[in-house]
Amino acid sequence: MSSTDALATRYLDVPGGRLGYDDTGHGTGTTVLLLPGMLVSRSIYRDLRPLLAAAGHRVVTMDLRGFGDASIAWDDYSPAAIATDALALLDHLGIGRAVLVGHSYTGATVVRAAGLAPERVAGIALLSAFIEGPPANAFQKALMKTVGALWLRFPSTWGTYQRFAFPTKPAGFEEHRTGVVAALRTPGRKQATRGHLGGNAAPVGWSTAVTCPALAVMGSGDPDFPKPELVADHQAAALNGRKVMIEGAGHYLMLERPQTTADALLAFLGESA
């Protein structure tokens, strides 16, 4: 899963900390901002980014608070707080409008950003996201609390989850898996991990403020959802958008099926121009 199109890390200071990002810096098509999901870095887009850039788009990828090349300690790690970071980065780069792509935890982030600044967001795409989810019942809350405690105390269990998240293991999978586990073991990282685990990744009602085009992309084999296609249907309906299902794919579409994911996004970018 290594890319020959490596970009230098750049930094932006915002209230509360420092963000790491990279930027292809050019492109005649719609600018795209890619946001990773929880507990991983922007490197998950290393195979998808060059495909979008080769099609003529300026592509920016940003680390989330607490992970990758961002500073670790923040007061707020929520999707809503990350939405303000995304808009601040667009301001910093002088980007008037962009399509925002959120994965998993940051699906809620791009929905929030679109509602806060509709004039800045040309469209939003959700990859394996959790938005507009039904309230968790007592069993689900207890299960997530247990899983979160395991990831905090035993980072290797996050690596075990990665095995289930990829129904098909792409080239470089073990490099990816060991890297995300090592990141959780970085001194001080527990604060960030705890912050992500406590963030509301499935807010209900934020979609009502979205007026831009929207796309929900989901793998039919995503283990995070009992019925992935029904989730995608629900999200597309809530956003007055459409869905794309990737047959057999798991939770990390951009790594497992980068070309298929790029095809879905490129079609959407054409519609959002």
Written overview of the protein:
This protein is of the alpha/beta class. It has a single domain (10-272), classed as Alpha/Beta hydrolase fold, catalytic domain (Rossmann fold). Helix content is 40%, strand content 16%. The protein contains ten helices and eight strands. It has helices at residues 49-54, 79-93, 107-116, 138-153, 156-165, 173-184, 189-197, 228-238, 253-256, 258-272, and strands spanning 10-14, 17-23, 32-35, 59-62, 98-103, 121-127, 214-219, 242-246. Strands 1-2-4-3-5-6-7-8 form an eight-stranded mixed sheet, with helices on both faces. Helix 2 (79-93) packs across helix 3 (107-116) and helix 5 (156-165) runs antiparallel to helix 6 (173-184). It is globular and about 45 Å long.
Brief rundown of the structure:
The chain is of the alpha/beta class and 273 residues long. It contains ten helices and eight strands.
Total number of distinct structural domains: 1
**What global shape is seen?**
globular
Given as residue ranges, the uncertain stretches (5+ residues, pLDDT < 50) are none
User: Mean pLDDT, rounded to whole units?
Assistant: 92
The helicity comes to 25-40%
Series of secondary-structure elements, N-terminal to C-terminal = EEEHEHEHEHHHHEHEHH
The CATH architecture:
3-Layer(aba) Sandwich
Level-1 CATH class name: Alpha Beta
Provide the CATH topology.
Rossmann fold
| Total beta strand runs | 8
Radius of gyration: 17 Å
